[in-house]
Amino acid sequence: MGEYNPLMKEILEKAGLSPGESAVYLALIDLGSTTVGPIVSKSGVSTSKVYSILNRLIKKGLVSSILIEGVKQFKAEDPRQLLEYVSNKEKELEAGIRKECFFFA
């Protein structure tokens, strides 16, 4: 995969991103708004996987896309959005644990 700060990649993976999602997200942070080609080159993730990874990152609120002159461009959202994503995952986990504890009580 691409060259990144290994600590940042590790943090993203601890936050719940897959290695491929981390690589694509970090590539977008570095590249800014861009098409798939540079993302593939920078991240080291294959073209066939980049599209599904981008869609997952969009669903997580970490990436957005826009059409510019008929060409789809992607960009990483503000890194603070990652904190919101982690907070939401924490709330989901807490709700699941409470539900299971209630079930076993």
Keywords summarizing the entry:
mainly alpha; 5 helices; 11% strand; 2 strands; Arc Repressor Mutant, subunit A; single chain; 105 residues
Verbal overview:
This protein has 105 residues and is mainly α. It has a single domain (6-104), classed as Winged helix-like DNA-binding domain superfamily/Winged helix DNA-binding domain (Arc Repressor Mutant, subunit A, Orthogonal Bundle), CATH 1.10.10.10. It has helices spanning 6-14, 19-31, 36-43, 47-59, 80-104, and strands spanning 63-68, 71-76. β1 (63-68) and β2 (71-76) form a beta hairpin. α1 crosses α2 (19-31). The protein is elongated. The model has no long low-confidence stretch (mean pLDDT 89).
Question: Brief description of this entry?
Answer:
This protein has 105 residues and is mainly alpha-helical.
DSSP strand count: 2
Low-confidence stretches: none
Remind me, CATH topology?
Answer: Arc Repressor Mutant, subunit A
Tell me the helix content.
55-70%
The first-to-last residue Cα distance is 47 Å
Number of helices: 5
Secondary structure class reads mainly alpha
Percentage of β-strand residues = 5-15%
Order of helices and strands: HHHHEEH
CATH architecture: Orthogonal Bundle
